[in-house]
């Protein structure tokens, strides 16, 4: 792998973790689409728009993760059956309450942040600065989205720590 200056044996663990992350993002994307389609109630307009924004961002990340795997000279996992097998996320029914949708997404975010950290550790061990840069930005963005969804789920009388 001369153009990257990373040995293949060092990059295989990174690719493995990236493929798991790719699977996570595919399940997350589909869940967001389902929630976008099935949201009802007084929060329809806010969450319908937010879920669309989130699945558009997830779609971009799916492509970027797959392209990073290709940059590392490996093929990304590309069968949905494989995604279901290796993802740490679970499928969810889109017919649920707005509050439950947000709770499900926050649970997914926790799992995805864990996977993002796993990718970072493997990339750091391999000296893979490109993956480190990509994943660091994903962590920051997902943490911010988690904060916003968590704030949405709170009462106006709730307070943060001082």
Question: Structural class, judged by helices and strands?
Answer: mainly alpha
Q: What is the string of helix and strand elements?
A: HHHHH
CATH superfamily (homologous) name: Ferritin, core subunit, four-helix bundle
Unreliably modeled segments: none
Number of strands: 0
Main sheet record? none
Query: What is the class in the CATH system?
Result: Mainly Alpha
CATH third-tier fold name: Ferritin
Whole-number mean pLDDT: 96
- Total number of domains: 1
Separation of termini?
50 Å
How would the global form be characterised? globular
Compact summary:
The chain is mostly helical. It has five helices and no strands.
Commentary on this structure:
By secondary structure, the chain is an all-alpha fold. It has one domain: Ferritin, core subunit, four-helix bundle (Ferritin), CATH 1.20.1260.10. It is 73% helix and 0% strand. The longest helix has 31 residues. The termini are far apart. 31% of the residues are buried. The mean pLDDT is 96.
């Amino acid at each position: 792998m001369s153009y990257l200056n990373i040995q293949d044996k060092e990059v295989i663990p990174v690719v493995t973790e990236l493929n798991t992350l790719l699977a996570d993002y595919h399940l997350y994307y589909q869940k967001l689409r389902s929630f976008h389609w099935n949201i009802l109630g007084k929060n329809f307009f806010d969450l319908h728009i937010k879920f669309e924004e989130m699945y558009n961002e997830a779609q971009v990340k799916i492509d970027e993760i797959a392209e990073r795997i290709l940059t590392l000279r490996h093929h990304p996992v590309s069968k949905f059956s494989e995604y279901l097998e290796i993802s740490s996320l679970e499928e969810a029914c889109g017919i649920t309450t707005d509050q439950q949708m947000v709770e499900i997404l926050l649970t997914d975010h926790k799992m995805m942040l864990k996977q993002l950290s796993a990718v970072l550790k493997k990339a750091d061990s391999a000296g893979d600065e490109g993956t480190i840069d990509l994943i660091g930005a994903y962590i920051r963005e997902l943490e911010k989205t988690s904060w916003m969804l968590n704030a949405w789920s709170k009462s106006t009388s709730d307070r943060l720590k001082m």
